[in-house]
Amino acid sequence: MRYYIVDxxxxxxxxxxxxxxxxDLGMVIGxxxxxxxxxxxxxxxxxxVVLIDLLMPELDGIETMERLRSDxxxxxxxxxxxxxxxxxxxxxxxxxxxxxxxxxxxxVEVQSILKKTAEQFLLKNSLRTIQETLAHIGLDxxxxxxxxxxxxxxxxxxxxxIIGGAGSDDIVLIIEHMMNSSERAAQLPPLKDLYEAVxxxxxxxxxxxxxxxxxxxxxxxxxxxxxxxxxxxxxSIDYTNPEFEYYAPRYFDFQEIRKHMVSIQEEKxxxxxxxxxxxxxxxxxxxxxxxxxxxx
Length: 296
What we know:
Keywords: Phosphoprotein. By secondary structure, this protein is an alpha/beta fold. It has helices at residues 10-22, 35-45, 61-70, 86-94, 107-136, 149-159, 168-179, 191-200, 209-237, 242-251, 254-265, 278-295; strands spanning 2-6, 27-32, 49-53, 76-81, 97-102.
C-alpha cells in the first residue's frame, strides 16, 4: 500500500510514518503540511490512501478531499482529527472518508485501521479485475444475474474487517450450505451438523470429520472474535461509524460490545473476557444473506 500524509503537525506526520514503516504496512510516498501543498503531488503520485488532518490552515481536510475528487483522484481517505463532532463525521463520510484516526495518535488503533483499509482495497481491486475480465470476454456485467451467495457473504465479512481471517472461508461454506438446502429453513440446524457438512466437503480425502469439525469451530470462533474487536475499536473511536451502528447490535450482544468499549476508553489494563455466540452470528449472517440474495 502507498500512503500520502497531510497534516500541519510535523510530529503527527512522523509518528504515522514510523507506524507504517515499523508495522510493514506499506510505504509513505510523500507528505505535506497543508492541503494546498498536497494537491499536485497527490494527483501526480496517485497514492492508494491519503491520511489527512481535518483542521488545517488555508485548506482544511474536507475541502482538500473535495478538490482532489473533483480532479479525478480515486484513492481512499482516512481522516485524522482531535476534535470530532457528529456533524463533522457525517460530512466527512459523505465526502468519502473510509475511517477516522483520533488524536492523540495511538499505534494500535492506526495499525488496526490501516490493515482493514488494506483489506478493503484488495477486495475492491479483486472485484474490479473480475468485472474487467468479464467485460473483456464479452459479458455485460451490468446485466448479470443477482450476486452470488459468496459475494454477498464476503461483502458483509469485509465490512467487519475479517476478509482473509482463518475462519472466513469456513463461514462462507456454511452459508452456501444453508442456501443450497432445498428447504432453506429459517433457523440453523445444530452447529455440529454444519461443521461436519463443511468438513465432508473439504479438499482432502479420508479426512477425520470429527477432528476437522473441531478445527472449523476454532477457526470460526477466532474470526468472529476478530470481528467483535474490530467493531469495538470502531465504536470507541467513532460511535456514529456506519459499520459499527449496523453490525454491532445485530451480530453481537450489545452489552458485551459496550462493556469492552468502556474498558478501552478507560484504558483498563485488566483483560475482559469476551463472550462469543457463534450460532447467533451465523444465524444473523444467514438471514441477511438470504434477504439480499432474494432481492437480487
